[in-house]
C-alpha cells in the first residue's frame, strides 16, 4: 500500500470532510454541499443543490433527513452518479412516520433528478414487503456497478435483514436477503472477496467471524460460506479485503491486517477513533471532468 495525502486544497472546498464514496480515483465528500474531487489531478467540482433536500412538502412534516447516500460509476454510460435517499419527519403521529424520496445526480449532465414512485421492496414467501435502508456508515460499499447498504424488511410477523443495492446503470433499487443464520444479527462489513460480494458477521462472543460470498448482484443467487476467521485474541472490527488473503480490521483504535493463510495479525501505523474508522479502496487515476461535467479518462493504476 502506498500513502496518498489529501492536500489542503480539498479541505478548503468544504467545512466538513465526510467521505461518501471512492470510485476509480474520484472521491465524493462533503455534508449538505457535496463535492467530487480527484486528488491525483487536483480537480474538484461542487455539485449543484437539489430541490428535494431544501424542505419537506407541506406543513405536516417538520424536517427532511438524509437517510442514505452512495457514489459510483455507471459502466454502460461511462459516467459517475450520486444517489441520495431522504425521509420527511412528521410533526405528529397521525400520518405515516416517514415519507421517503430519492434522487440521482449525473456528472455528465451536472444535474439532480428525482426518482418517480420511489419505493424499495423485497419479495419474501410471495409477499412484497417494504424495505428501509439502515444508514450505518461502515456497512456500505460501491462494488461492480452498484452501491450497497444494509436494510430491514418488516413483515406482519417477522423482520428480515437484507442488503439494498442501487444499480448505477438502470437506476433501480434491488434487495438481497441475507443468509438465514445472519438474520437478527448485526453485520460487521460489506466487502469484496475474489470477485464476489462478501458479507462479514460475528459469531458468539464476537472474536470469530463467518465470511459469506455471493457472485454478481446476487438477487437470484445463492450465498456460500467459504471460510471462518477466529477465534482471535481480541474483538477486532473487520472492514475489507485488500487481497484475497488479507483482511483489514480495526483493533482498539489501530488499523491491523489479518492474513488468512498464516493467521497472523500485523499492526499498521494507522490510528483513529474506535467505532468511527472507515476504509475505502482508492486507485490513483487521471479521470478529468470539465465544468460541463464531461469525462476524459486517460488511465489509472492501483496503489
Structure report:
It comes from Rubroshorea leprosula. This is F-box associated beta-propeller type 1 domain-containing protein. Residues 19-271 form the F-box associated beta-propeller type domain. The chain is mainly β. The chain has one domain (8-231, 278-302). Helix content is 1%, strand content 54%. The strands form six sheets. Strands 9, 10, 11, 12, 13 and 14 form a six-stranded antiparallel β-sheet that branches. Strand 15 and strand 16 (196-203) form a beta hairpin.
Structure in a nutshell:
This protein has 303 residues and is mainly β.
Spell out the blueprint of helices and strands.
Blueprint (H helix, E strand, L loop, with lengths): L7 H4 L7 E5 L2 E5 L3 E5 L4 E4 L14 E14 L4 E12 L8 E8 L4 E4 L6 E4 L2 E8 L5 E4 L2 E9 L4 E9 L4 E6 L11 E5 L2 E8 L4 E7 L9 E6 L7 E7 L2 E6 L2 E6 L5 E7 L11 E7 L5 E8 L1
Antiparallel strand pairs: 1-2, 2-3, 3-4, 5-6, 6-7, 7-8, 9-10, 10-12, 11-12, 12-13, 13-14, 15-16, 16-17, 17-18, 19-20, 20-21, 21-22, 23-24
Number of strands: 24
Mean pLDDT: 79
What share of residues are in beta strands? over 45%
- The domain count comes to 1
State the shape. globular
Order of helices and strands: HEEEEEEEEEEEEEEEEEEEEEEEE
Features:
single chain, mainly beta, four-stranded antiparallel beta sheet
Amino acid at each position: 500500500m502506498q500513502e496518498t495525502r489529501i492536500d489542503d486544497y480539498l479541505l478548503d472546498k468544504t467545512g466538513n470532510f465526510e467521505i461518501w464514496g471512492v470510485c476509480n480515483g474520484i472521491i465524493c465528500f462533503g455534508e449538505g454541499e457535496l463535492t467530487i474531487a480527484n486528488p491525483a489531478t487536483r480537480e474538484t467540482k461542487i455539485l449543484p443543490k437539489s430541490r428535494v433536500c431544501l424542505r419537506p412538502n407541506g406543513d405536516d412534516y417538520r424536517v427532511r433527513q438524509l437517510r442514505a447516500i452512495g457514489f459510483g460509476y455507471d459502466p454502460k454510460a461511462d459516467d459517475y452518479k450520486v444517489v441520495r435517499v431522504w425521509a420527511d419527519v412528521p410533526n405528529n403521529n397521525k400520518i405515516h412516520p416517514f415519507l421517503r424520496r430519492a434522487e440521482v445526480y449525473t456528472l455528465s449532465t451536472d444535474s439532480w433528478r428525482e426518482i418517480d414512485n420511489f419505493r424499495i421492496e423485497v419479495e419474501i414467501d410471495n409477499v412484497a414487503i417494504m424495505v428501509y435502508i439502515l444508514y450505518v456508515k461502515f456497512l456500505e460499499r460501491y462494488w461492480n456497478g452498484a452501491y450497497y447498504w444494509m436494510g430491514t424488511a418488516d413483515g406482519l410477523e417477522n423482520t428480515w435483514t437484507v442488503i439494498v443495492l442501487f444499480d448505477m446503470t438502470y437506476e433501480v433499487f434491488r434487495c438481497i436477503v441475507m443468509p438465514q443464520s445472519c438474520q437478527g444479527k448485526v453485520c460487521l462489513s460489506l466487502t469484496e472477496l475474489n470477485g464476489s460480494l462478501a458479507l462479514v458477521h460475528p459469531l458468539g462472543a464476537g472474536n470469530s467471524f463467518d465470511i459469506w460470498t455471493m457472485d454478481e448482484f446476487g438477487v437470484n443467487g445463492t450465498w456460500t460460506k467459504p471460510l471462518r476467521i477466529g477465534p482471535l485474541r481480541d474483538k477486532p472490527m473487520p472492514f475489507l479485503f485488500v487481497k484475497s488473503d488479507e483482511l483489514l480490521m480495526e483493533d482498539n483504535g489501530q488499523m491491523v491486517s489479518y492474513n488468512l493463510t498464516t493467521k497472523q495479525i500485523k499492526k499498521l501505523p494507522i490510528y483513529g477513533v474506535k467505532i468511527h474508522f472507515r476504509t475505502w479502496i482508492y486507485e490513483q487515476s487521471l479521470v478529468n471532468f470539465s465544468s460541463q461535467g464531461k469525462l476524459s479518462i486517460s488511465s489509472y493504476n492501483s496503489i
